[in-house]
Amino acid sequence: MNNLPALVASHTPGVREWLLLTSVIFSIGLYGLLTRRNAVGILLAVELMLNSAALNFVIFNRFCMPARVDGSVMAIFVVAIAAAEVVVGMAIFVALYRYRGTVDVNRMDTMKDPATPFEGPIAFHEGVIEGINKQYKSRHDH
Amino acid sequence: MIAAAVYTVMFWALAVATVLLALVVVNTRKLLRGAVALMGALGTTAGLYVMLDAQFLAGVQVLVYVGGVVVLIVFAIMLTRSGELLEDHPAPVRMFVGAVVSIAFLALSGGAVWVSPFAVDGSGKTPPNDALSIGKALLDTGPGGYVAPFEVISLLLLAAMIGGIVIARKTPPPHQPFTSGGDLPGETDVYTPLSQRDTEPGGRAS
Questions:
Q1: ipTM for the complex shown
Q2: Chain B from 53 to 82: CB within 8 A of any A CB
């Protein structure tokens, strides 16, 4: 029992343990990115991935180049980009919700070739649905 | 030796907490709970920054991520009413594909990390962690300085801010007068004067 601190101290995390941790977090974020249906949920997963990437920069700075601060500077850049991305993402989702009434990414198919005449949700601008149906008619009538 | 033991225990505690919170973020059906779990995961990441001798970054993490980004995400959840709805479970095939892709990525990157020889600096030095050296590197115009990326990031933040305002701004539908709300789906369809409306905007009974 006396050598328990020594035993624990002999397992001090090295660069591999740290990098494995960030890989795990990034993979979890990737899973969320691929399975979420709500666009805001996808934003959450992307934040996780950006966070683990910034952590990676700091890990390499700490273990491989401890005399400089380049990793910290890059992590600050990542944080700034993440903030900008969240601002634009939130604005897009709010505008999307206003026009479509949903932020479900499975229903974001306006740019698809319409296989069936399109009824559309209630919130479309006047004329958009007629335009889509006209396009449908012109492709399938002849 | 005691210090090393404490360091090890703290690392594993923070690592397990971060991974569990990240799992909650991607798996919960309540998005608001996911946002709170993300706040926790970012907070434990700030603890990991402290353990990596990057105290300034830990402060930045708490200020910008936990204080700013998560609040913006909560705004997004509220404004899109995602918090009121339970999100559907993803389709089984989608869950299967997501799990396969993420586990394959983890195996690939983890294996690469495990077998790669890293040029670990064994001198025992710790990086300069004060704001002074980071600020000097950010504004350094010499070789290895970061003043150009710093300026580009400033422009990017400005553009993102203006773009966000422009995209999320209320705009009236073409050829129609500006309505009072514009927030609710259905209101942009046909303009009904307020005096002729028998229901609340958006069709909810008054």
A1: 0.80
A2: 53-54, 56-57, 60-61, 64-65, 68-69, 72-73, 75-77, 79-82
Residue B136 to residue A112: CA distance in whole angstroms: 50
pLDDT tens sequence across B105-117: 999 999 999 998 8
Say whether B3 sits in a helix, a strand or coil.
helix
- The domains of chain B are located at 1-87, 138-173
Interface of B with A in 148-167 (CB under 8 A): 149, 153, 156-157, 159-161, 163-167
Q: Give me the architecture of the B1-87 domain, per CATH.
A: Up-down Bundle (1.20)
Nearest CA among A71, A81, A4 for reference residue B157: A81
Stretch B172-183: mean pLDDT, rounded?
Answer: 53
A13 bridge partner residues: none
**Boundaries of every domain in chain A:** 13-108, 110-142
What tokens does B74 get?
Answer: 């909560």
* A49: nearest Cα among A27, A76, A71: A27
Residue A23 structure tokens: 């890989």
The partner residue sitting opposite B72, judged by closest CB among A48, A81, A90, is A90
Q: How far apart are CA B125 and CA A63, in angstroms?
A: 9
Chain A: give the shortest CA distance to residue B202, in Å.
Answer: 10
d(CA A21, CA A18): 5
CA max distance for chain B: 79
CA proximity to B146, closest of A94, A75, A44: A75
Tokens 């952590």, residue? A55
Stated pTM of the model = 0.79
- Separation CA B58–CA B35 (nearest Å): 19
pLDDT in tens, A23-38: 999 999 999 999 988 8
Q: With contact defined as beta carbons under 8 Å apart, do A125 and B186 qualify?
A: no
Q: Can you give the pLDDT at residue B201?
A: 52
* Cα–Cα distance measured from residue B136 to residue B132, given in angstroms and rounded to the nearest whole number: 6
Which top CATH class is A13-108?
A: mainly alpha
